Each structure stands twice: as C-alpha cells, then as structure tokens.
Amino acid sequence: MIFGKYINRYYLRYLHLILLGAAALVVVDYAQLLIPDYQGSIVDSLIEGNLSMDYLRHVMLRFLMIAAAMFIGRFAWRVTIFGTGVRVEADLRDRLFVHSEKLSQTYFHKNKVGAQMALYTNDLNAIRETFGMGILTLVDALFLGSLALYYMFRINVMLTLLLSIPMFLMALAGGIIGKFMRVKFQERQKAFENLSDFTQENFSGLSVIKAFVKEGKELLSFRKINKDNAEKNVIFLRYANLLYVVILVTINLIGFILIGIGSYLIIKTNTTNPEIGFSVGDLTRFVSYFSSLVWPMMAISQLINIRSQGKASYKRIKALLDEPIDIVDNNPVQVKVLRGEITYRNLNFAYPGTDSLVLKDINLEIKPGESVGIIGRTGCGKTTLVDLLLRLYNLEENTLFIDGIDIMRLPIKQVRDLFGYVPQDNFLFSDTIHNNIAFAHESMPEEEVKHYAALADVAGNIEEFTHQYQTVLGERGVTVSGGQKQRISIARALAKDPKVLILDDSISAVDSKTEETILANLQEFKKDRTIILIAHRVSSIQNLDKIVFMDNGRILGVGTHEELLANIKLYQDLVDLQKLEEQVEVAEGDAHE
Question: What are residue 472's DSSP bridge partners?
Fold first, then answer.
C-alpha cells in the first residue's frame, strides 16, 4: 500500500469495499487452513487402523462446505478489491485530465506528449495494481501467514522457530532488493516516455520523413531508443527475478529443513522419546500449513514489487497534480455582457521563464465592429499579440483591457467566450466534419453547419466526399488538404458566432480566388462583429478598416493601407517586395504556358 495526499482519500471513500474484500479474504484463508487438520487426522487414523466410513463421510462433507465458502469468498474479494483498484485508476485519470486542461501553455512546452501518455497508461496501471493486487497480497501475507505460523507453533515450537530464520533473512533481502527495484522502475518509465515521444512525433511527421527519404535514419534512431527501453526493462526484470529466486530458494530450503527435522522427530517419537509427541499426521499437517505459507511468502515478493512500482508511479503522478495552475480567476469583476472593445496600453510581454521581450510598449485600440489586419515579418509578435486576448498567459495589471476593464480582472470563461479563434496550426479533431464545425454548439442542425461551411467556401469540397458532412477526418485532420483544413477551421470559428473573430494566417493555403471569396463572405458575416486578421500578404488585409504594422515586437504604425504606404518606409518595402514576387510568379506562369 502507498500513501499520499492524492491517494489517501480513496482508502476512506472505498473503505467499505476494502473491508468487505478483506473479510472475504479472511474467510477464505481461515477455511483453507482447516484442510490440513483434517488431512493429518485421516493420516493418523490410517496408520492407527481406526479410520471409519462415518468419519470419512464427515470429512468429505466438511471439504465440500470449505470449497463452497472458498468459492464465494474468492468471488467476493475479486469483485471488491480488484474493483476498487479499477475505480481508483479511473478517478485518478479523470483528475489528471481535469488538472491538465487547466495548466498553462508553458507546462506543455516543457513536457512532451509521450511523458503525459506514460502517466495515463503505465503509471496509472501501477496505481491500480497497488490498490488491487497490493491489498490482496498485504492481507494474505498478514492473515494467512500469521495464522499458518500460529498453527505450526501449536504443533512444534522448535521446528517453527528454525523455519522462521530463513524467512526473516528472505524478508530482509526482499526489502533491500525492493529499494533497487523502485529506482529501476523509474528509469524504466523514463525510457518508455522517450519511446512514446519519439513514436508519436514520427507518426505525426510521417509525410515529412517520407518526403526527405529519411526512413532509414529514423529507423536507426528508433532502434536506439527502443533498445534503451528494452535494456531498462531487462534490468528491472533482473531485480524482480532476483527477488523471485530468493523467495524460491528460501521456500526450498525451508522444505528441506522441514522434511529432515520432521522425519527426525517422528523417529525419536517412535523409538526413544515418545514424549516428543510428533506423529506422521503432525508432519502432514505441518507440511500442509507450510504449503499454505508458500503463497504469503510469494505474496511478500509481489507486494515489494508492486509497492516499489506504485511509489515510483505515484511520485510522477503527484508531480503533475502538484503543478500549479497559473491561469486562474482572482476575484473577477462580474460583467453581464462584453462588447469586445480592446485596448493595449504600454504592454510589454515575455514568455514565462524567459527575459527576452516578445512584445514591447504596445499601444493599440480596437473598437467593436472594426476589421483589423495585423502584418509584419515572421517572428515579429503577431500571434503573441492575439494570444494574450485569450488569457493563455498572465499579464501585468493595467496593460490590456476589454471594455475598459483589466483583462486580469475578468472571468476567464467570459473572456474566451467572446472570441472565435482560428490558430495557425488549424487543428482538427479525429471526428466527423459536422462535429468539427459544430464544436462550440454540439446540437447544431446540419443546415446551420452547411451555412458556415459555405461562408468559409468549403461546402463544395465537403459535398464531394462520399459521406459529405459525416466524413470522419483522420488524426489532426490528415485526410483533408491544407486549404480544406484551414477553411473547416474558419467554419468552426464562425459557427461559434463570436463577437470577435481572430484569424491567424488562416487563408495562406488557399488560392487568390478562394481568398477573395472568404474575405467577401467575412464582410457579410461581420455585421457588428470585430474581425482581427493576421496575414503575410498585404492583399489579404489592404481593404480592412485599419492595419497594424509590426516589426521586432513593436507596432510601427496603425492606419489604412494608404496611410501606412505614405508614412512607413518598411511597409512600403514590404508592399513593393510582394508586388515584385507576384510579377515573377506571373512571368513564370506565362513562360510555362
């Protein structure tokens, strides 16, 4: 058994099941230890020649009753004790998931997916084993072992004491080996994490690996990591097998001592010292009790193994549950409705754990109903500027306001409900296209889903699929093209019906005609909504109400396309460069024709 602040509650919550299971185990163990006495009595009666059929029938009836009690008891403890392990595993998995959802982006930047999956699989399995098999082995080792020893003491104290010496040495060796096993189990789990990380990353980037013909290189890397994982498992199993061998050798040693000394006592009783009073029946009983003691001795081995794994896994699970939740409501201001007026005021921002400012002295105002474009060179801070609106990070007070209220004082859910967001990676779930678009409103009718798909100019593509809106997308939307993925993501954001729509480079993978259609549809959708569009192409944003031009984390200018063109040299250079690129593309197209 293991203890800790995230585990102790389960002992109280499921105490009735644990006690019921322990009681069933005790009944089984007690019934099991009635058998040796009857066996000894039958042997003595056979040797003395006074075994009667009535006594034999009586013993057989008792055996049937014992078998029935053991059958019911074993069924009961399996349902209660093993069932408790499954319940604890499921509840802990829920708690891990809920806690993980509340953690900030920073945590997931530091901890890979494979490490998280190891917690949800191997580590939780170890916790389940601790509550299931761990409780079973503990109760059996204590009660069955103690009761068997008690009966053995009643038969012969000296013989029992002699057998206790190797048992004590075995327990001592088991404790020492168990400490090593705990360390090796942690190393084994770490190797499994690395293997999971590498495998997940390779499957996600399989198309890139094939495109660069790097299958051989990745296979060699996989074999190296897989070999390390196998070696860590083998080392752990060596200690587990060493413990098993120690137990097995001890059992055989005790059996050898038992038969040797027991036979000697029988000879002495029958020849020179009748007062010893040790019969063949007593030896039969003693051997049977010792046979019943073998499982508790093996259980001690398993208990040490299970507890070592459980403690190591709990340590890793505790580390996640102890991870502080950074993004929380702190005495939020209650506001009935947010209109979506956004104000940045002297805002500076650096990602947690770094000193380098990503955004510097940002001052910007976005009024409700405006369409705003954000443009600038790669890495200038465009995405970070809009990510802050979603309260993905904590900010200094009085630097970012919504409707004149500091965003740090607004309820997180209310802030996030205000926005519809299409991120750069255009993540889609492995679900139907309908459910992906209707993600914000699960009960949305298909007619509405079709409407938003049409606004995103993806309805035609969807209707070409065999199952249309019921088409199940592959993992991360791998079964559709990049442009289709972008447009389905746009449809999902539109279907949320947000007051502020944020598109982060979300039409980069479509052709110019499709881009024009989507932008026109957005103007139709806009009404009194705010649209923030991050783009790399000036053509995507030049007709919006205003454009924010950024460079190196700063806003260099805010205004219409014409105003920026007249006043900002870097913006002029960007426009000229993109015009030149378009001319080159046209010339190349004419040359191919």
Answer: 432
Whole-prediction pTM: 0.70
**Strands 554-559 and 359-366, how do they pair?**
unpaired
Tens digits of residue pLDDT in 441-478: 878 888 888 888 888 888 888 888 888 888 888 766 66
Range name among 278-287, 421-430, 556-565 with the lowest pLDDT average: 278-287
CATH number of this structure's domain 161-277:
1.20.1560.10
Place of tokens 């009944």: 27
585 pLDDT higher than 60: no
Lowest mean pLDDT among 175-179, 270-274, 400-404, 432-436: 270-274
Task: Please write the tens of the pLDDT for every residue from 143-200.
Answer: 887 787 788 788 778 777 877 777 777 777 777 777 777 778 778 878 887 887 787 7
Q: Does domain 1-156 have CATH number 3.40.50.800?
A: no
Mean pLDDT value of segment 417-435: 83
Task: Please give the structure tokens belonging to residue 400.
Answer: 């970012």
Q: At 531, is the secondary structure helix, strand, or coil? A: strand
Residue 276: half-sphere exposure toward Cβ, Cα within 13 Å: 22
Domain covering 342-592, topology: Rossmann fold (3.40.50)
CA 333 from centre of chain? 34
Neighbours of 459 (CB within 10 A): 19
Distance in angstroms (rounded) separating the CA atoms of residues 376 and 367 = 21
- Considering Cα of 460, then 462, then 468, then 470, what sign does the dihedral take? negative
Q: What are the sequence ranges of the domains in the chain? A: 1-156, 161-277, 342-592
Query: In what helix (H) or strand (E) does residue 504 lie, and over which residues does it extend?
Result: strand 500-504
Cα-Cα-Cα-Cα dihedral sign, residues 234, 237, 243, 248: negative
In the β-sheet with 371-376, what is the strand arrangement from edge to edge? 419-422, 500-504, 530-534, 371-376, 546-551, 554-559
Confidence of residue 272 (pLDDT cuts 50, 70, 90): low
Sign, CA dihedral 394-395-396-401, equals negative
User: What's the helix, strand, coil split of the chain in %, to 5?
Assistant: 65, 10, 25
Taking a C-beta distance cutoff of 8 angstroms, is the pair 310, 7 a contact? no
User: Is a pLDDT exceeding 70 seen at residue 12?
Assistant: yes
Enclosing H/E stretch for 450: helix 446-455
The stretch 46-68 carries a mean pLDDT of 78
Is residue 156 within 8 A of residue 278, CB to CB? The reply is yes
Q: Do domains 1-156 and 342-592 have the same CATH topology?
A: no
Structure tokens at 226: 């897989």
Nearest in space to 516 (alpha carbons), one of 527, 507, 528: 507
User: Contact at 8 Å (CB) between 225 and 198?
Assistant: yes
3-state secondary structure 366-429: ECCCCEEEEEECCCCCHHHHHHHHHCCCCCCCCCEEECCEEHHHCCHHHHHHCEEEECCCCCCC
Written as one letter, the residue type at 110 is K
Alpha-carbon span 170 to 253, nearest angstrom: 11
Radius of gyration over every alpha carbon of the chain, rounded to an integer in angstroms: 36
Q: What was the pLDDT predicted at 582?
A: 65
